[in-house]
Amino acid sequence: MSTFHRHREIELNLVLRGSLTYLIGGRRLTVSAGQLALLWGAMPHRLMSSNPQTDVFWLTVPLGDVLRWNLPQPLVQAILGGQAVHSEATDATDQGRFASWAALLSEQSNPETRRIVLLELEARLRRLALNWKELPSRKPRGSPGISAADHVERMAALIAEQYQQPLKVAEIAAAAGLHPHYATTLFRASLGVGLSEYLTQSRIAHAQRLLLTTNLPVLDIMHEVGFRSTSRFHEAFVQACGMTPGAFRRGSWPQNSLE
How many whole angstroms separate alpha carbon 8 and alpha carbon 43? Predict the structure, then answer.
């Protein structure tokens, strides 16, 4: 995965061997062997590295399905808030269960097959809700010998912490001790997305969470997440989500199939 990306689904990663390291919300998060990890795809994220021997199952579940399950709120709020969570205790049956789901979904798809997989997924996430914790994150280092990768992480972390403010590219670059032009070039070369685009993506992800979990008016949400122009907010939201904020709140997003 060469660039940051976003999607509407909840993403499940089951690491069988090795490990995966993501950059999400400006922090590095590592998923190790035996862990079942969940993250919300609306948060800009990127797979930074993986152990050469890594073996993993990936599965995405439409957000609408997950919300309809009415899972315990602490788990849902954690995921929609940009955290990546994982099972605290390993489940020896997960590998067989994921293999079974993959086999079912690889067959000729029909509504009953999909329903079976969704019911089993719901049960698995309910068990996860009984015993989970947030994946630990690593903040970028602040030593004098900071590397280019650490500069990029520092800028991503600053955006994650301050995107609700009227943040400018020059301020982001200055926080990393870089010239704005070099900072922009380095960020794009490293992560495949510009500073301004990443800033917008972070604001949109927060807007999505507030639309789903609060009754705040759309105008209040626009200001809460850092937009100052109604037209710019609607333009950015439609571009990112394919619909207006109001339509997103009503739950009229496309129902994607399990992958």
Answer: 9
